[in-house]
Each structure stands twice: as structure tokens, then as C-alpha cells.
Amino acid sequence: MICKNYFKRYAGGIQMFKKLLLFSALIILIFGVIYSQTPKKPKIYITVDMEGIGPAVSQIQTRPGDSEYEKARKWLTSEVNACIEGSLEAGAGEIVVADSHWNAQNILPDDLNESVYLIRGFPRPMMLMEGIDSSFDGVMVIGAHAKEGTSGAVISHTVWGTKFFDIRLNGISVSETLLNAIIAGEFNVPVIFVAGDQFITNEAKKVLGDIEVAVTKESIGWLSAKTRHPKKVYENIKEKCKTAVSKIKDFKPYKINAPIKMEIVFKNTYDAEALSFIPGFKRIDGHTVLFEAKNVKEVSGVIAGIFSINTR
Ligand SMILES: [Zn+2]
Predict the structure, then answer these.
(1) Which of 34, 141, 223, 301 has the fewest CB within 10 Å, making it most exposed?
(2) What is the pTM of this model?
(3) Looking at residues 271-296, what average pLDDT do you find?
């Protein structure tokens, strides 16, 4: 009798367990369906240079130690914050900010929006794009400036103002912003927003498609620009970043064919001569060295390596 009751209870327990299992599976399935249908919040990468911020017209603002540098760090951080706020209002998820000017320690961490991650310090093999990968949905650029040799543009240069005259990839002369777009394009991530003077924003729209831009100042010359009150610049950046994130699916990554013919044109013949001593680097004229890169990572690594060895 005891035995019979025991088995009865045992069988009932199993039935109950089966029902519980079925119920749990159903709950997991329902949540799985809901989760898979919830759109993923766009993950944003913001790379930050300094020459292109609204009030910057010379190295008085952009060089650590110079008289207006500390003020400029506040302007820079506020432009980044404006971009973050606009992005968050448009539904952005994780945001990673890469401080990418000079020693890459310009943004004031205490004043930066608390919700983001901040990449700081050089050297980095992916330079202004360190940390980018295919998990991101869009790249934004703050403080962008025109490439070396752009007449009329404030502090125009390409990566290394005292040494590089030009960098050409598959015959295309690149600005830092285009180089950033090419690196992001390797991971299928589009540039969706650029803030800087009229030269770099025009170039970005022309080359990268109909992206959002914020013109932070009208460059007049190498060391002069028509500027606005910083708050007006922040407002504009916030608005444009909000628009960019709200239509993030509209933008296309900028792709380049590999292998990549990279030509580095130096300002001094000495530098071109010295680099050509390294196997793989072919001197093609007095100022220019050619390197055939297998992919964008190699392009970035070579530029970052040459630059970093010489600036410490
Ligand atoms: Zn730069």
C-alpha cells in the first residue's frame, strides 16, 4: 500500500515537472521572439580631432601648453557632449569616443557625458579609429580639418604636418577624415556625421555621400576663420547628430579595393630616402615612397608606426 501511494505520487510529480518544463520553454520562446523583434540600439563610434572645433584658428588653441589650450579642451569636450546628447536623443545605444588629437589626451574626462567609453592616448595601430569593429553602426567625426595643401583651410594637414605632404591610397589623395572612413569601411561601418570647417565638411559630403555635417566655422586662411559663439556650434552639432542617428540605415560604408597601393609623399627628400631602406618600401620619386598593403589594417599600421617612432 505504501509502495502504491509512493509510485502514484512519484508519477504525479513527473507530470508536474513536465508541465513546468513546457511552461518555461514557452516563456523563453515568447521572450526570444520579443527580443529578436526589438530593434538593436545603434552603436556609435565618435572620433575626435581638435583643429576643426569652432573657436580653433591656430596652435594657440590646439597645442598642449599653449595659452588657450585649456579653454580649447572645454570647447572640444562640449562639442563631443553635444554630439553624444543628440545621438542619445535619437536612440543610440553604446557610444565609444576616441580622443585622437596630439597625445590623444585632450577631452576632459570629468566633463564628458558619463554614459560613454573613452579611448585615450597614443600610439595606437588604428590611429584615430582605434577600437572600431563590425559591431558599430556608425562613425561620427568631431573637430575634423582639411588635408594638407588645402588652400584657405585652418591648420590643414594630413596626420603629421611637419613630415607628410600627402598620402595616396590607390591613387586617391586622402584627408584624415577619408582615411577614417576607409578604416571604418573595412568593418562595413559608414561615416554618418562630420563636424569641421567648410572645406572638410564639403569634401566629406562629396566623397562619402549625403552624410550629415555641422560647419563649425568658415576658414579664411591657414590661421584665420569666421567663427560663432561656441554655444551656437554645440546646438548645431547636437541637431545634426540627432538627425544622423535617426536615419542611420541610410548611410553606406566607404570601401576600397585591396591590395592597396599606398604612396606616402614626404615634405623632405631625406625622409623618403630613409624609409626606402626598409624592404617593401619602394622609392618612386624624390619625395614619394610606395608600399603595397594587403589590407586597410596594414595601411593604418604603417602610417601609425612611422609617425609614432618619430614623435617620441
Ligand atoms: Zn588631425
Answers:
(1) 34
(2) 0.88
(3) 98
